[in-house]
UniProtKB/TrEMBL annotation:
Signal peptide residue numbers: 1-31
Keyword Iron: yes
Domain of life: Bacteria
Keyword annotations: Heme, Iron, Metal-binding, Signal
Protein name: Cytochrome c domain-containing protein
Organism annotation: Geothrix limicola
Record has Cell division as a keyword: no
Chain segments carrying region Disordered: 140-159
Residue intervals of the Cytochrome c domain: 46-141
Length: 159
């Protein structure tokens, strides 16, 4: 009996099925591991002073000491000018203001351009910390005034 075209293709399909299932299972396992909770970003919530110190340690390179991004790296990487953003933001209110804050928090948490333009800080800052950073540090940036923590004074930590 001469094999038909259908009977020739079935064995090839059956040989490929285990490999395809293996790839599918591996892909599902990888996706599940990527969705596992990330390590806690440390003590939270952070104070405004701690967030200003974080900015000094991690953000000045691209955004400049005052947040204006007028330094060489900031211009090269097109770092956001927070002093201009603060001026522009003052004209917004309601849903538009909330949307801008959420966009900035998202950029801090997730990074930009797969971490190539800006790294993700979700392992160091909680979403609450990132929101406080946007509201109380970045959107209060002023040209020529460095973003830096205030000296601690005896009684407690300033917020």
């Amino acid at each position: 009996m001469k094999p038909t075209q259908e009977s020739v293709h079935i064995p090839a399909f059956r040989r490929a099925l285990p490999r395809a299932l293996g790839v599918l299972v591996a892909g599902l396992a990888l996706a599940a591991s990527a969705q596992s909770p990330s390590p806690s970003p440390g003590p939270s919530p952070k104070s405004v002073n701690q967030l200003k110190a974080f900015f000094q340690q991690n953000c000045i390179r691209c955004h400049g000491a005052d947040g204006s991004a007028h330094n060489a790296e900031g211009k090269k990487l097109s770092g956001l000018d927070f002093t201009k953003a603060a001026r522009d933001f003052s004209a917004l209110n309601g849903p538009a203001a909330d949307r801008e804050i959420r966009a900035m928090v998202h950029a801090i948490q997730k990074g930009l351009f797969f971490g190539l333009s800006m790294p993700a800080w979700k392992d160091q800052l909680s979403e609450e910390d990132s929101t406080l950073m946007v509201r109380e540090v970045l959107l209060k940036a002023e040209p020529g005034k460095p973003i830096q923590p205030q000296p601690e004074t005896g009684g407690g930590k300033p917020r």
